[in-house]
Amino acid sequence: TVETFAVNVADEASVDAVITKVVDQFGGIEIGINCAGISGTPTPTHLMSLVEWQKVIDVNQTGVWLCQRALIRQMLKQEYVVII
């Protein structure tokens, strides 16, 4: 079964809420793949605004970290499962 969920990876509450939804629907989480990335407005770095830069960092770095942190926290609550 595959399900998709809309989530703002740069928002801690949004990430935590989607993890709760996944666990409610599937009973747990056995694997997570954290990959998010945006390039922002195509602008030379020296012309990029701080707001635009922060948006890129929030998604590309903080967002991936928030997702992996939430996944690990959930997985540590679960019984270890070997997937073959």
- Which whole number gives the mean pLDDT? 91
The ordered string of helix (H) and strand (E) elements is: HH
Number of helices: 2
Range of strand content: under 5%
| Total DSSP E strands | 0
The end-to-end span amounts to 17 Å
Poorly predicted runs are none
| Shape, per Cα inertia axes | elongated
Major sheet attributes: none
Radius of gyration using CA atoms only:
16 Å
Category by helix and strand content: mainly alpha
Helical percentage: 40-55%
Question: Can you walk me through this structure?
Answer:
The protein has 2 helices and no strands. It is mainly alpha-helical. It is elongated and about 50 Å long. The mean pLDDT is 91. Helix 1 (12-26) runs parallel beside helix 2.
